[in-house]
Specification:
Layout: H1 5-24, H2 33-51, H3 63-73, H4 75-93, H5 102-115, H6 118-122, H7 140-155, H8 159-172, H9 175-189, H10 194-219, H11 226-248, H12 262-269, H13 279-288, H14 292-306, H15 310-326, H16 332-349
Helix pairs in contact: 1-2, 1-11, 1-15, 2-14, 3-4, 3-16, 4-16, 5-7, 7-8, 7-9, 7-15, 8-9, 8-10, 9-10, 9-15, 11-13, 13-14, 14-15, 14-16, 15-16
């Protein structure tokens, strides 16, 4: 079976669980029909875009959203985008450079990812010990580390790297990072050893328990158990999306993609100085309104091109899977298109997968 179908199944399951959650918890408003129809249309549009990916389109088409979003974000987005595109152009002209060097490049990538959070950790920014730091820009090295390790696991699913990545996710207390790493490992590995899966799931449970304890400490009396909290979170996050639907329709406001911290911006819409996740549907509908369905189509199209290479395909699919709950932003959207570019270039250069 095509692994991309996991994404459609997860999106439909998430919508279903959100409706159940909103009907179950009195603290949540009842589900609204129009946002539900939009979420289903968004899912179908992405599915449709994926199946149109066989159409011949030059790789440079994917450069447009990468540069466009980078310009919206500013220097923090533009400089990495230009560096990436420069590296791609150089790779196209010098494909022989990577011959015999792929293992070295993988090791450099892994070491860089593992060392990336070290400077901020030495500064005292350890979310496990100081939860407030996970809501500041000091969280970025932890998140960047997770995404680099996802790409490394997509190339070679090494169980040691998975465990180290999960330990970093534990220190950062980011559940999404842990799920992202596990998704990349399982999707790339296929058949996972029972011992490795057991250790990974144990660490994942610890990470979820730690976040549960942090929630209790942060918000005082917390009326839900761990599993009730997970179901409530789905319904609450979906309710955030419904609010973004109301604010963004019909033509959008284009404020989340240009934002360095869109979750904090979304929190401000509710009068809160804290971060809110907003589902995979939230950013497109708020930024583009009904035209957000075109964004979903092009994301599906980019995913369809990325999966032609196992490495970029697993990375792209993993990012989108985690985005179902956490939402899209100025890093994830360009990353999907960038991975499509890498897939195209690797095929042109005859790169290994």
């Amino acid at each position: 079976m095509d692994r991309a179908y996991i994404l459609w199944a997860v999106m439909v399951a998430y919508i279903s669980l959100a409706i159940i959650s909103k009907l179950h918890f009195d603290q949540l408003p009842p589900p609204k029909p129009c946002p539900l129809l939009y979420a289903l249309a968004f899912t179908f549009s992405m599915f449709l875009g994926y199946h149109f990916a066989g159409r011949k389109v030059p790789a440079w088409v994917f450069v447009i959203p990468v540069l466009g979003i980078a310009l919206l974000v500013g220097p923090l987005g533009f400089l990495p985008a230009v560096s990436f595109l420069g590296a791609v152009v150089w790779l196209k002209k010098n494909p022989e450079w990577f011959t015999g060097r792929t293992e070295l490049m993988w090791k450099i990538l892994v070491v860089s990812a593992l060392l990336l959070p070290l400077p901020v950790a030495l500064m005292g920014a350890i979310p496990l010990l100081d939860p407030a730091t996970r809501y500041s820009l000091l969280k970025l090295p932890y998140l960047a580390s997770a995404y680099l390790l996802v790409f490394a696991l997509s190339y070679k699913p090494d169980s040691r790297i998975l465990i180290l990545g999960l330990l970093i996710a534990l220190v950062s207390t980011f559940r999404s990072s842990a799920l992202l790493l596990l998704a990349a490992y399982v999707l790339r590995k296929g058949k996972v050893e029972g011992r490795v899966l057991g250790v990974a799931l144990f660490l994942l449970l610890i990470i979820f328990l730690v976040r549960h304890v942090i929630n209790v400490m942060t918000y005082g009396i917390w009326r839900f158990s761990l599993f009730e909290e997970l179901l409530y979170r789905i319904g609450f996050t979906y309710s955030v999306y419904e609010r973004l639907f109301e604010l963004g329709m019909p033509i959008g406001r284009l404020e989340l993609l240009p934002s360095i911290n869109p979750r904090l911006l979304v929190g401000s819409f509710f009068g809160k100085a804290r971060e809110y996740t907003y589902t995979i549907f939230g950013q497109p509908v708020y930024d583009f309104g009904i035209f957000g369905l075109l964004e979903s189509f092009f994301l599906g199209f980019a995913l369809g091109r990325a999966v032609k290479n196992p490495v970029t395909g697993v990375s792209s699919l993993s990012i989108l899977l985690v985005s179902v709950e956490s939402g899209l932003d100025a890093f994830k959207v360009p990353a999907i298109f960038a991975l499509a570019i890498l897939s195209e270039v690797s095929r042109e250069c005859g790169g290994r997968s």
